[in-house]
Design a protein that fits this description.
Helices cover 0% and strands 55% of the residues. The protein has 175 residues and is mainly β. The strands form 5 sheets. It has a 4-stranded antiparallel sheet with strand order 7-8-9-10, with no helix packed on it.
Length: 175
């Protein structure tokens, strides 16, 4: 019953240790949870349409608090450090490989959310009240927009619109 993947299709291991593909839609999720060191434990889990529970798989433990963004096309997980102008990239195609560490040109702290869309990495900062876009390979970025950022996260809708979800006030804004 352990989750497996073969040729990009998820399934579960059968009695003979073979990967049996699932017929249902399956989704991959990532979660960063606070750990005992003031940092984050990053997990992945898979869920089908009919699942009622999921098994968390620890991917990495970090000494920093991070926000997550996922590049589905390249199977890369971006981990934005809250208190530094830096992010890490975990290649999910190469389990056990070290992360790629990227430093941006801005000397900032207070990052609270991030997302990945169409080859660009986006991050929001509650200290500057700005949203930044970064090139994932070198960390070069630009300020996109000023906003009322007090926690929350960023997400793209199906129409390509960037949304800011703020925890104070509890609202979503089109960027």
């Amino acid at each position: 019953g352990t989750v497996c993947e073969i040729d990009g299709v998820f399934g579960t291991y059968g009695e003979n240790c073979e990967c049996i593909p699932n017929d249902d839609c399956q989704y991959i999720y990532f979660v960063a949870s606070a750990n005992d060191f003031g940092g984050s434990d990053v997990y992945q889990f898979f869920a089908d349409d009919g699942d009622t529970e999921a098994n968390l798989e620890l991917l990495i433990s970090l000494d920093e608090e991070v926000s997550l963004a996922y590049d589905e096309d390249n199977q890369l997980l971006y981990m934005l450090e809250r208190n530094q102008a830096a992010f890490r990239i975990l290649d999910l195609n190469a389990p056990g490989s070290p992360t790629s560490d990227v430093t941006t040109q801005y000397n900032l702290s207070g990052f609270t959310g991030s997302t990945f869309y169409n080859g660009t990495y986006y991050a929001m900062n509650e200290v500057t009240n700005r949203i930044y876009s970064y090139m994932p390979d070198d960390g070069m970025g630009v300020v996109l927009k000023r906003g009322n950022i007090t926690g929350g996260d960023l997400a793209f809708g199906q129409n390509g619109m960037l949304y800011l979800v703020s925890t104070g006030p509890n609202r979503a804004f089109e960027v």
